[in-house]
Fold this sequence. Notes:
The chain is of the alpha+beta class. 45% of the residues lie in helices and 26% in strands. It contains four helices and eight strands.
Amino acid sequence: MGSMVRKLSPLFLKIAGLGLIFFLAAPASQSFAQSANVFANPDQLARLLQEEGFAAKRETDGEGDPLISSSSQGLKWSIFFYGCTNGRNCTAIQFNCGLNAKGSIPVEQLNQWNSNWRYTKSYLRKDGSVALVRDIDLTGGISTANFKSALASWDTHVGRFKKDMDW
């Protein structure tokens, strides 16, 4: 019996090894797109926005850093890039929607919004306009699913903010 186990062991190991390779390879290839990291790369983010049905116009801000312009819910907004070195290798992004409110939205109403909503915040700028923002740290990347979830949440918040502020 001992010699039979020794004869079967190499064959068994080969078959088991092949099975393990196929088992491990299949899920990895199927889930790569879902788990691929999203970085503060303007081309990658523009492509992801377009995949989700948003416009994505690549631009450059006044400091030479990337900028993506888009819109949803009837409002224009941008994605600003931060922590960049010479317009590249950025580490964070900010979704930013500016409303030319000219004092028509009281600070108390903005504060109430901020206490009700967790990830997206609003504030009154010095010039009287209102900003709605959401920051995302992309150091090391996040999953595609997480980015798409943040984008969907941003879109929902833009619409809700517009409604809540009677804009």
